[in-house]
Amino acid sequence: MKNSSESQANKKHFNSSDHPSGDERFKVIDRTMKRFDFEKDALLEVLHATQESFGFLSNDLLIYISSQLRVPLSQVYGVATFYHSFTFEPLGKHNCIICTGTACHVKGSATITQALSEQFEVPIGKTTEDGLFSLTTARCLGSCGLAPVAVLDGEVHGRQSPQSTISLVKDILARETEVLEQGEPG
After folding, report:
1. Which of 23, 68, 119, 145 has the greatest number of C-beta atoms within 10 Å?
2. Burial class (CB in 10 A: 0-12, 13-18, 19+), 78
3. Are 104 and 148 in contact (CB under 8 A)?
4. How confident is the model at residue 178 (pLDDT cuts 50, 70, 90)?
5. Are the CB atoms for 97 and 151 separated by under 8 Å?
6. Half-sphere exposure of residue 110, counting CA atoms within 13 Å on the CB side?
C-alpha cells in the first residue's frame, strides 16, 4: 500500500497516454494542471482547457478535475456553473449566445431569444436535433453599449432585433446547408 506522499508524486507524474480512456484530449488537461503544479488555484484555467479540448464539461470530466486538483467536486461544479462560457452538453456546430444582462434585457434581449427559439425550433439552452445550431444565454457579455447583443459563432453583433438576429442565423445555416449539399467538409 502506498503512502499519501508517494500517491501525490505519482499523480503529478501521471502520463495522460496512460489515461484509462485512451483519449488524447486528456493530455491538454494534464499539461495545464502540471503547468500550474496541480495547485487548486488552477481550477479556472483547467476548466477552460477542458472546455476547449472537449467542447463541453461532462460529469466525468468534472470528477477527473476534482480528483487531480484535490478540490471538492462541489467547488469545481460551482465555478463551472458560475461562468457562462462553460457548457455541460455538446453544443451545435453553430452557436448563438444572447446576452440577458440588464442593458440587453431592457432593450429586448428576451424577445430576441424567444423569436430564435420559435423560428429554429430549439429550446433555450439546447441544440437543434440536427446538431447544427445551439441557442444559449449569458448573464452579461460586457458589451452593454451595444445592447442588445448576440454572439454568433464567436462574433459579437450589437444593437440586434429579433429580425436581424434571425437573419444572421438563417444566413449561416443556409451556407451550412449549401456546403452539406455539395458534399464538402464544413
Report:
1. 68
2. exposed
3. yes
4. confident
5. yes
6. 5
Q: What is the pLDDT of residues 79-108, one digit of tens each?
A: 999 887 788 988 999 999 999 999 999 999
Count of CB atoms situated within 10 Å of the CB of 130: 11
- pTM, two decimals, is 0.70
At 23-69, the pLDDT tens digits run: 888 999 999 999 999 999 999 999 999 988 898 999 999 999 999 99
User: How many angstroms separate the CA atoms of 28 and 151, rounded?
Assistant: 26
